[in-house]
Design goal:
The structure is a homodimer of 419-residue chains. Chain A has helices at residues 15-30, 45-56, 62-86, 118-125, 153-163, 197-205, 213-222, 277-287, 317-331, 358-368, 392-402, and strands at 2-7, 34-39, 91-94, 101-103, 112-115, 129-133, 136-139, 145-147, 168-173, 194-196, 226-230, 238-241, 256-260, 263-272, 295-297, 305-313, 335-339, 342-348, 375-379, 382-388. The first copy, chain A, has 419 residues and is α/β, with parallel strands linked by helices. Chain A has a domain at 2-174: Acetylglutamate kinase-like (Carbamate kinase, 3-Layer(aba) Sandwich), CATH 3.40.1160. The longest helix of chain A is centred in the N-terminal third of the chain and has 25 residues, at 62-86. In chain A, helix 2 (45-56) packs antiparallel against helix 3 (62-86). In chain A, the strands form four sheets. Chain A has an eight-stranded mixed sheet, sandwiched between helices. Chain A has eleven helices and 20 strands. Chain A binds chain B through residues 15, 18-19, 49, 52-53, 55-58, 60-61, 63-65, 67-68, 70-71, 74-75, 77-79, 81-83, 85-86, 91-93, 95, 98, 119, 143, 145, and chain B through 15, 18-19, 49, 52-53, 55-58, 60-61, 63-65, 67-68, 70-72, 74-75, 77-79, 81-83, 85-86, 91-93, 95, 98, 119, 143, 145. Chains A, B: Belongs to the aspartokinase family.
Chain lengths: 419, 419
């Protein structure tokens, strides 16, 4: 069978790690598989290159930044191939461009348009292990080197797995898989052996760092089974895949709890209580190129006015505030307030569909922990609550317990430095 | 006019140096030129990458080593482009492959077959400064990334200058040009304002490190004027070009003195004094893939036997000795002696053609310095002498003085770390 394996930066941080990964790859090949490996840059290489760029130019051109950064994966790919060759096996490294990763031309955040893995196919036919530099491709239009945005090596891996019709795609990092909650917050969190694409999407979209959002989308669309596991152990990890079987009453209603500290809340107060005012506010934000997450329109607080709150990435906070202040006179609201001391806890599980009262359980659990819920949003399989950032960990623990997800004892040992 | 500029590793060793080089490039463009820049890897990057490779594999595959090492120039090229963009000008960096440097597939020591500078041409047409990663290309047959061998960025620069029909090619390093002798040995050495390709070839082939031999060959064949100068000063440097004009009596007979410490001498003693014996010895060495430099067949030392000495690169010493020992019985010589404590001093100048007695002057000067000449070889414009390595510096000074090349005072200030 064809297997695609992706190793993150912490898995190839130094020569010793690279050799260890090489052995693991060879084991997979020895089991009769054709192996294609996507590798990230070693440890902190990307950050070091970014620092170097910063010394030369305060804001380097994205095209040149891509040219610089892609050198990181190029080096780790070549070194990993050397390590495999040194074990008496044949490996060949390819840049994203050589591997046929065709992308849009948006430097720093390009999207994969197509994969033409001709060179990979022939290398596999010759019995080689194929090592592909992750996180990079080549622009279809300009033929320039592009990067897919940080963390996108996962996406490259899944896209290659689909293009190569691989049996599955293994994503190696320094954690044992996907957990019912972040084990750093909930020591009793348990590994999720299997999770559906849609549940993983909700987890990733709501703060679970383990898999890149676009990677999960791609895997789900292409139906590529993804095996998330640690390169520092032989533990089974988590399978992200289509789960066809009927769910039984034994199945947990809730699969996992995700949390996110990266959002901020903006509240627009004294909004004139007229038709279209809210629309103008969100048009203003949208035209600033900002995606918002949750929205709450409060009941009228003062005579004839209302307040509107919404959440957005903290990184867009300044831009949004500036845009709104500019529009203040036109729209005619009183003031705008920024608050980045919030956190989001999300309860995710397909079991919600068949079980009523899940939201009631979630709200009660948080309330009984003495935590005030500032905002709420739900999807068919998710309930998200915004709370004060200081109380986020408690909220996560409260719902994890309330839905009976606590296992006994330490769930996971972290190795390495994360991805 | 089109100008190609090449900057060595010491010229782009850190962010500050890269910014300084960027200004120099912009100045050249501001003078109304189209500028194409070839850049080496920053400072010791290549050595650091080699160390990294060594940690992973004692002898890495050349293909993978090329993939690894070329990342060095890729980084410096991108950083230099950023620095130029930061000054408000537009620059675009290209890998050797993107620049159309087509090579043979011999990894680590590929030769340029062709240059297809389509992307460079269009970038120049758009008014961009073009930055090309030196020392690398792409194999015509395998499409793999190749390197041209260390120091070959000079060759890339001249080859690009020829392909782009540039007016001239500037090779920037940390020395002020080509000198009548190595200023570290002869403080009174003077800068050579102009030198012919053939003289520069002899200088380079006999130890002058300033220009890569293949680069000079290429420049001479293509008739590309090469301007050798320092990136740490605005001094005029040395022009390597066709010198058509009649030489006058005022012209110095000798242009420069080169020296070389990288050779060793092998002496085969007790060679049977029969026809073909010498031939068998040199066939043996040649079949071991070793190029030899100078040969001396001594007069018969013992009854019916003779001794043959030749010089070769020290790096080939072990290989040659092993091959000869194996052939000892067959050829029937008594013994073979290895000596790497030799040095070669070469007197170079086209003036020799028209002036008799140059060799006499050279031999006398060395002899009067009390130095024994072990071997001699000459070309139409060169006289080389092998002396004891401890006496090499004295020999260089002696001939430099004998041919009236001494100027008064310090000739050059070395900056940076050399190439």
């Amino acid at each position: 069978m064809r297997v695609v394996q992706k190793f993150g930066g912490s898995s190839v941080a130094d020569a010793a790690s690279i050799k260890r990964v090489a052995k693991r790859i060879i084991d997979t090949q020895e089991q009769g598989n054709e192996v294609v490996v996507i590798v990230s840059a070693m440890g902190d290489t990307t950050d070091e290159l970014l620092d170097l760029a910063g010394e030369v130019s305060p804001n380097p051109r994205p095209r040149e930044l891509d040219m610089l950064l892609t050198a990181g994966e190029r080096m780790s790919a070549a070194l990993l191939a050397m390590a495999i060759n040194d074990l008496g096996y044949t490996a060949r490294s390819f840049t994203g461009s050589q591997a046929g990763v065709i992308t849009t031309e948006k430097h720093g955040d390009a999207r994969i348009i197509d994969i033409t893995p001709g060179r990979i196919e022939s290398a596999l036919d010759e019995g080689d292990v194929v090592i592909v530099a992750g996180f990079q491709g080549v622009s279809q239009t300009t033929k320039d080197v592009t990067t897919l945005g940080r963390g996108a090596s996962d996406t490259t891996a899944v896209a290659l797995a689909a293009a190569l019709k691989a049996g599955y795609c293994e994503i190696y990092s320094d954690v044992d898989g996907v957990f019912s909650a972040d084990p750093r917050i909930v020591p009793g969190a348990s590994r999720i052996p299997e999770i559906s694409y849609e549940e993983m999407l909700e987890m990733a979209a709501n703060g679970a760092k383990i898999l890149h959002l676009r990677c999960v989308e791609y895997a789900g669309r292409e139906g590529v089974p993804v095996h998330v596991r640690s390169s520092f152990s032989d533990n089974p990890g988590t399978w992200v895949k289509n789960i066809e079987k009927e769910r039984t009453v034994e199945d947990p209603i809730i699969t996992g709890i995700a949390h996110d500290r990266s959002e901020a809340k903006i509240t627009v107060v004294g909004v004139p209580d007229r038709i279209g005012a809210a629309g103008e506010i969100f048009t203003t934000v949208a035209e600033a190129g900002i995606n918002i997450d949750m929205i709450v329109q409060n009941v009228s607080v003062a005579e004839g006015t209302t307040a509107i709150s919404f959440t957005l990435p903290q990184s867009d906070g300044d831009k949004a505030m500036a845009a709104l202040r500019d529009a203040r006179a036109t729209i005619g609201f009183a003031d705008v307030i920024y608050n980045d001391r919030i956190g989001k806890v999300s309860v995710v599980g397909v079991g919600m569909r068949s079980h009523p009262g899940v939201s009631a359980t979630a709200f009660r659990a948080v309330a009984e922990a003495g935590i005030n819920i500032e905002m709420i949003s739900t999807s068919e399989i998710r309930i998200s609550m915004i709370v004060n950032s200081e109380q986020l960990d408690n909220a996560v623990r409260a719902v994890h317990t309330a839905f009976g997800l606590d296992s006994d004892g330490q769930a996971v040992v972290y190795a390495g430095t994360g991805r």
